[in-house]
């Protein structure tokens, strides 16, 4: 069986570093808000090229905290609208609803599956206050065009950078393209912890201070509460593990691109539509997603040949029961994408043989 994602194998690359991180944290006797978190925050901020990184409990919290902080600062109000892609993982949208703002869905570019900048303007109303682009599957959204619209309408840009750690365009990293960004270090992400973890990055001093306080019960000083905050912290153990893995992230991304190049060069079957990639470092291939019309059959075929696949994502957000108020809306591009996408095995630990097997099996379909 060729696994979709062999997480044990991924983490075994770091076995020595992870075990020594565990020992160091265990023996320090200090498990929350300590030196390891501070070090990781500094390292990840430097990596992204931003002034501030705030470690939080997970990627959803990271996005929620950015929006909450903008509310505390008077930039957003309840009922304001945020534009978000209509095909994304539900967390991008949940972050907006959770903070009592209104997600306004906009269709993606059919080639990149990322928010289509040319469709944003028609969705803008007097209540629109922000755009939340998602760098889906690890490929950066067209941030230049998104910023042009944002500037024109004075909108805040919040990146969902959960899938795009380390991606680069015009010399800038994912997490440094907006006013703030939410990152996830869920174990399966390109930079993954051994549990839940996330971070916010920003160049805005005031926003960073506010997020830090809200994430820690709303207090900057112990037992003095400025906000009705939450508890959302990145613990010392996860921070130490992430520091160890961050050192090799660029190398891992390079290997993922190599795997993608092999798939793109080797897969040649008119029934299978390959992903678009401009061959730059703007894609870190969190996922390698192909489109197939009869996806059900295709997935069964791959399973029968010992190739594990996953669908990201089977149901578009506007068709989810949680958002039944949107059930009458129509987003044809997103609907067809959700009906046809399927993700092939993609990690930095796939062997050449495994990659060749995947290619051959796909070509024989
Ligand atoms: C994983 C993910 C999130 C949420 O991250 P968690 O750490 O699981 O909360 C948000 N947005 C996108 C696009 C993701 O893939």
Count the E strands: 14
Give the structural class. Answer: alpha/beta
Topology as H/E string? HHHEHEHEEHEEEEEHEEHHEEHHEH
- Quote the CATH topology of the largest domain: Aspartate Aminotransferase, domain 2
What is the subunit organization of this protein? single chain
- Uncertain runs are none
Share in helix:
25-40%
Largest sheet at a glance?
7 strands, mixed
CATH class annotation of the largest domain:
Alpha Beta
Silhouette: globular
Radius of gyration: 20 Å
Based on the coordinates given, report the CATH architecture of the largest domain. 3-Layer(aba) Sandwich
Q: Give the rounded overall mean pLDDT.
A: 97
**Distance between the terminal alpha carbons, to the nearest Å?**
18 Å
Identify every distinct bound molecule in the structure, by name, code or SMILES.
pyridoxal-5'-phosphate
Number of domains: 2
Spatial strand sequence of the major β-sheet = 1-9-8-5-4-2-3
Q: Supply the CATH superfamily name of the largest domain.
A: Type I PLP-dependent aspartate aminotransferase-like (Major domain)
Strand content: 5-15%
Number of helices: 12
Spell out the key features of this protein.
365 residues, alpha/beta, Aspartate Aminotransferase, domain 2, Aspartate Aminotransferase, domain 1, 2 domains, seven-stranded mixed sheet, three-stranded antiparallel sheet, 12 helices, 14 strands, binds pyridoxal-5'-phosphate, PyrdxlP-dep_Trfase_major, pyridoxal phosphate binding, PyrdxlP-dep_Trfase, pyridoxal phosphate, transaminase activity
Detailed description of the structure:
This protein is of the alpha/beta class. The protein has two domains: 7-106 and 113-242, Aspartate Aminotransferase, domain 2, CATH 3.40.640.10; 249-364, Alpha-Beta Complex (Aspartate Aminotransferase, domain 1), CATH 3.90.1150. 38% of the residues lie in helices and 15% in strands. It has helices at residues 7-12, 15-28, 35-48, 59-72, 90-98, 143-153, 205-215, 236-246, 249-266, 295-304, 332-340, 352-363, and strands at 52-56, 81-85, 102-106, 128-131, 156-160, 168-169, 172-173, 180-184, 198-202, 219-221, 224-225, 272-273, 288-292, 341-344. The strands form four sheets. The protein has a seven-stranded mixed beta sheet with strand order 1-9-8-5-4-2-3, sandwiched between helices. Helix 4 runs parallel beside helix 5, helix 4 (59-72) crosses helix 7 and helix 9 runs parallel beside helix 12 (352-363). It is globular and about 65 Å long. Residues 58-60, 88-89, 91-92, 134, 160, 162-163, 184, 186, 196, 198 line the site of pyridoxal-5'-phosphate.
